[in-house]
Structure formats: structure tokens, C-alpha cells
């Protein structure tokens, strides 16, 4: 195994391992919070769903990608490729949509109450689940073409307009199908990113307007938590936009060529998965509920370890 393959394999392995660990910890923490608290805030419900979407993305894309890099072949047959690629497309789409949803909901939460918002804010909690359902249905419909073009790798020359993912091939058969699929995915992504950036800009504007009233905000009930949550949302949005930009520069390049180099495809996979791997650690570091559950679990394990050591002695 040459040096380049080793570096690529270790990079994917670290990204996959850290991402699965981080998102699993966030999901376990929220599972415990759900069992101990009567009701989750809308932001917490969205963050929990974001971790679930990121976990789907990592399991269906990065895990087989890592196995392929290390030389494992024939991982999936045709039906397996169709299921995995479809699940990956949905997970990736949900990641951007839920991050956008998080930004919009947080902007509404901290916005000054007006005639419309005064009626909307109390209903936010009841709108979370229907919004989740709508996003799932939307992305299942947009990604429906993926299973029809996905297949297990074939021996021989890779045909034009075929994405070689290593463990699967996505064969669009002709330039029209290739471009239509790319445009549909890009339009959806850019629409949600534009809404995400707009709502995040509004959050920044509100935080700037209230910067002179920080002491008052901290003393008022709930506003400090809302401000911290807004800063967490802004961090996640900036993180997503950075990697989204890199991902789409590579994607636009891929749309302009008939045969995509495996190196280029691997670069796109790596950068498009960075958000899913890094975002849970921003959630853990900035969310007091999640951090508190992790610290509590660690403290509960500590006495048992000390007791075991004393018994061994």
C-alpha cells in the first residue's frame, strides 16, 4: 500500500470514527434528556435530528468509502448499492435542510415579538415534527432518481457520465440525465443555504443591536440561554457554509467533465462529510444540556472504576 493510499485511508478512518462517535454521543445524551425532561425545546429537537441525519450520512458514505480505500472489494450488490446511495442522498440533504431549519427557528425565537411573531412563537414547538416530516418527504422525492442509476461496480472501462464511488457506480447513461440530476440537487442545496445565510444574517443583526444590553440580557430570564443558542447556530452555519462551498466547487467541476477522476471524487466525499464529523463536537462544547449529561455519565463511571481498583488491591 503506497503512501498516498495510506494517508487517504487514515484520513477517512479518522473522519468516520470521530464523526460516528460524536453524533452517537449527542443522540445518547438527548435520549437521556428526553427520558428525564417533560419537553424538549425546538432547538434541542432540531439538534438531535441533525445528529441523526449526520449519522446516516457517515454510515452510508464514509464507512463503505473507508473500507474501499483499504482494499475491500465487492462490498455491495446492485440492490445494496441502490439502498445505500439513496439513504446517503437523503442523509446529506437532511443535513443541509435541518441546519437551515435550525437557523430559521432560532431567528424566530430571538426576534422581537411583533403582531405575527407573537402568534408564531408559542406554536414553534408544535411545528417541529410537521417540518421534519415535510423535509423527509421533499428529499425522498428529490433523491428518488438515485436508486435507478446506482449499481455495483462492473469490471472493465468506466462509461462516461458515471460517478465511480469505489464501492458503487452511479451511471447516468447520458449527459442530459447527468446535468438534470446535478442541477436539481444544486438548486435544492443553494435554496436552503440561501435561506440559512439570510436567517443567520438576521441573527447577527439582532445580536449586534443588543450588544450594548448584554448585562440586561444575561439578567433577564431565558435570554442568556437564547443568546448562547444563537451563537451555537451561527457557528454551525458558518461551518456548513465553508464545507458546502468547497463541496460545490468540486461538484460544479465534476458536472463539466464526462469522466471524473477517483481522486476528485474522494476529495468531494471528504469535504462534504467534514460537517457531519465536526458539528457534533461544536454541539457538545456549546450545549449545556448535552455537556451536562456527558459529565454526569463520566462522574457516575468514576466511582465504579475506583471501587474496582480497590477490590483488585
TrEMBL record:
GO term, biological process aspect, one: response to pheromone
TM regions (residue ranges): 12-34, 46-70, 90-111, 123-149, 229-255, 267-284
Compartment annotation: Cell membrane
InterPro entries from the UniProt entry: GPCR_Rhodpsn_7TM (IPR017452), Vmron_rcpt_1 (IPR004072)
Superkingdom classification of source: Eukaryota
SUPFAM superfamilies: Family A G protein-coupled receptor-like
Assigned keywords, A-Z: Cell membrane, G-protein coupled receptor, Membrane, Pheromone response, Receptor, Transducer, Transmembrane, Transmembrane helix
GO cellular component: plasma membrane
GO-annotated molecular function: L-tyrosine binding; monocarboxylic acid binding; pheromone binding; pheromone receptor activity
Membrane topology designation: Multi-pass membrane protein
Keyword check for Transmembrane: yes
Coiled coil: none
PROSITE patterns, sorted: G_PROTEIN_RECEP_F1_2
Occurrences of domain G-protein coupled receptors family 1 profile (ranges): 22-283
Record-stated family: Belongs to the G-protein coupled receptor 1 family.
Protein name: Vomeronasal type-1 receptor
Organism listed in the record: Oryzias melastigma (Marine medaka)
